User: Fold this.
Amino acid sequence: MIRHHLNDALLMAYSAGQLPEAFNLAVAAHVSLCDECRARLESFDAVGGVLLDDCSGVSLSENSFAATMARIKAGDPQPRSPRQAVPRGVFPAPLRDYVGGDLDAVRWRSVGGGVRQAILATDRDATARLLYIPGGVAVPDHGHRGTELTLVLQGAFRDEVDRFGRGDIEIATEELDHTPVAEEGDPCVCLAVTDAPLRFNSFVPRILQPFLRI
Amino acid sequence: MLQIVRANPITDPHSAPPALEWMARGGKGRVDVSEGSATQGEWVEQMLRLARQGDEAAFAELFDHFAPRVKAFLMKSGATASLAEECAQDVMATVWNKAALFDPSRASVATWIFTIARNRRIDALRKARRPEPEDLPWGPEPEPDQIDSMVLQQETERLGEALALLPDNQRELIEKAYFGDLSHGEIARITGLPLGTIKSRIRLALEKLRQAMT
Assistant:
């Protein structure tokens, strides 16, 4: 049961196509797991549809329709029912596309204390990384200069705000200094995206920061 | 304030208005036909003809209505006229190729084409990948429930009416957001979009799909 959802601003910005790639990935991954946010997202898409329908058109070039038909006929015929069954795993499809597989395909790097991370290749406006936190272990206390989204994919963590389990997404803004601690048991695996580098609140992690690249 | 120009009616003297066919075949329910504009339900008819029979005449109607709007949408987002023309043809070719994926119980044709145009814009103007939510593990039902589709199409029209009633400055912000002139930070200032009923319809459609599969 997902208890922590995306907010309207993020869903609308995703629908409008205004988010950096890393944020798009977090939104797409959460929506893959959450029908509530999928319905909200599709209703924001409906706003886009209404605006498109209301917009006064710009004339096309004269042979535009013929050129489009030629494009269609030159292309490969598309299969009638193109949807494939999605393999079950820890990662939803959009995340699998970035990793090149499921959890076992991640190329982790250790960042100390048993915590591992893997940075995913996205455009430079924001950073996406996977975090692997052994049960009972804390991620260093940190604040953010921008927004940080943390989506739980396996296990759970707790911080000053609440408990976050699979599918839950935490939206942390500049005001929040938090110390996520993985629950005892299964390691917690999260997708974390940030639109500005984190600032750590204690000296040692600050030295680590360039190395962590977060 | 951007000028809003309503769509022209579909004028085909040789056939009954598709909305009437739709009503006749749907049996129950009622379609509100707004005078002087093609309703969302009529576009659904054209889409289903395209999806089922590869009907080129239906595609031509969709093309005449939507291609100039897609071109306008892309130009408002900063594309040159020639790039917008190129992309609009691409978008319409995608409409043809993916017609079988259109689900009228979850989106209007305008909404669906908006999502294709938006993705093409991100690809063409930002050169970034656009991670999309995992498809539900099944496509639209081969014979979508007509009442469900009809209600969703009506809800989309109501959403359009509600958006038209928003104060000018609010409506202008929304247009800016969807046409690409607002950052996601600024989008947070937009509040109170009238999404309630359409959101519940989409939620219901998703639930029904999931139930049909289990």
Summary: Residues 143 and 199 of chain A are 6 Å apart (CA to CA). The domain at 1-53+90-214 of chain A is CATH 2.60.120.10 (Jelly Rolls). Chain A has six helices and eleven strands.
